C-alpha cells in the first residue's frame, strides 16, 4: 500500500531522488520555501530536518506541513527521539497525518549537549528503531499499545544508516534491527569513500530495504572545508578539498567559478551513482545539496545516465 | 559501591545558611569520606569556612552511615543538646544522608534547617580514590545479562536500547568531544568476543518507565 509518491516509487522499485531542506532559527520559512520550489522539479520528495546538531530551529513538523502546502513538494518529515517521549511522538505521528504528511524519517538526533540549549533534558525515550516500530504499529495495526486509533495515520517510515561507521559491523547489524522494526527505506549519511560504501551496502543488502545513498554536493571550497572540519565522522578526501581550493583561488570570474564547482561536483559524484547502480546496490540518491538547488539538473543527468 | 559526591560552591552553601548563626556540622564517614567531601576532610573544610565567616559551630561530628535512619536516631540522641541549640544542620554527606537526618528530626524538630554541603553525583564504581565512574543508574530493570555485562543505560550518553547511534565516531561518543567510549561499541565488542552477536542484533523494546518513573521503595519484610 502506498500513501505517497515516495511510497509508490518504492513499491514499483523506481530509482528515487530525494532532496533536503534545513529550516533555520526563524519563523519565516520564505527562504526554505524558495529552495523547495527550485528543487521540486527534480526530486520526488525532500527531507525537512529536525534541529540538527541540537541547535534549535523551527519545529520540523510545522515546517514540513507549511513547505508541503506552499510548494506542493512532497516532504519527508524528519523526527528525532531526542526531544519528545513515546506519548508525544505518537501524538505527533497522528498530527503529521492530519497535516497531510505521508513520509517520516526516524532519527536518534544529535545530543542536546552539542547544541545551543545544552541545559535541556535529553529525552531518548525511544530510539530510531523503536520509533520505526511505533509508526508501523500505528499505521499497520491501527493501534498504539494495543489501543485502537479511530482514524489511524498513513505514513511511510524511513531511517538512516552510516556507511562511514567504524566499527562497520555494529552499524550494519543495527540496520538489521531497523529492518526487523519495519523500516521501509534507508537514507545514508554522506559518503566519500567508494570502496567503503560498497562494502557497507553489500553488508546491509540482505535486509531487503531500499537504500538511498547520501550525497553532498559541495557548493564552494568554504562549504567543503567546513563540512570536513565540523561534521563529526566526515572526512572530505584531501584531493577533493585541494581541487575545490584551486577553483576558489584560480578562477576569479564568479560565473566561471560556479560552473567549475558544478562540473567538479558532477565528476566527483558520478562514479558513486553509476558504479553503485550498476552493482545493484542502490535504489536511489538522497542529495543533501542544502542551499545548492542548481546542482539538481546535473544529478538527474547522471542518474538517467 | 560508593555514592559519589562533590563539594558545593561555598557561596551557595553560605546563601542557604544566611539567616542562621548556630550550626551543627554532620559529616558522613562512609562514602563522602572516600570522596573527601565528608569524613574529617569535609568537617574541617566547612568548620574552617563557617568559623571564618563568624558562625557559631555548636558541634562537628563524623558519623558513619548517615543514610541509615537507625544510626542517625542513636546519634541524634547523643547530640540532643547541640541539635536543640543549632539553628541549622550542615550535612557533608550525600542526598540520602541529608534526607536521613531530616527524616529522623522531623517529629521533634519539624522546621529545623538541614542544609547540604555536597552535590550527589551518582552510584560510583571505584578505580582508585579520586577516580570514580558511573556504570549503573539503578534503573530497576537490569539488562546486564543481555548486553555482555555492560550497561547501555549508564554508558550510552542517550541511554539507548538499540545503539550505537550516528553520534559514534571510531568507537567514541559525540558527547564529551569524542573522548569517551561509545557504550554500544563496548557492548558490540564484548558480545562479539563472547560469540553472542545474536544478543546484539536483538531489537529491544523501549525501557518501561511505568514502575520506575516515580518514587520507588523496596520492602521485603
Compute the separation of the termini of chain A in Å. 30 Å
What class do helices, strands and sheet pairing of chain A give?
Answer: alpha/beta
- Counting DSSP H or I runs of 4 or more residues, the number of helices of chain A is 11
Class by SSE composition of chain B: alpha/beta
Walk me through what this model shows.
The complex is a heterodimer of chains A (305) and B (221). Chain A has one domain: TIM Barrel (Alpha-Beta Barrel), CATH 3.20.20. Chain A is 46% helix and 15% strand. Chain A is built from 11 helices and 10 strands. In chain A, strands 1-2-3-4-7-8-9-10 form an 8-stranded parallel β-barrel, surrounded by 5 helices. In chain A, strand 8 (185-190), helix 7 (194-205) and strand 9 form a beta-alpha-beta unit. The model of chain A has no long low-confidence stretch (mean pLDDT 96). In chain B, 33% of the residues lie in helices and 22% in strands. In chain B, the strands form 3 sheets. Chain B has a 4-stranded parallel β-sheet with strand order 3-2-4-5, sandwiched between helices. A 3-stranded antiparallel β-sheet of chain B has the order 1-6-7. Chain B has a two-stranded antiparallel ribbon with strand order 8-9. The radius of gyration of chain B is 21 Å and the shape is elongated. The two termini of chain B are 24 Å apart. The A-B interface holds A 82, 86, 107-108, 110-111, 113-114, 122, 124-130, 133, 160, 162, 165-167, 169-171, 173-174, 176-177, 180-181, 189, 232-233 and B 157-171, 174-175, 178, 184-185, 188-189, 192, 197, 200-207, 209.
Main traits of this protein?
heterodimer; A: 305 residues; alpha/beta; TIM Barrel; 8-stranded parallel barrel; two-stranded antiparallel ribbon; 11 helices; 46% helix; globular; B: 221 residues; Rossmann fold; 4-stranded parallel beta sheet
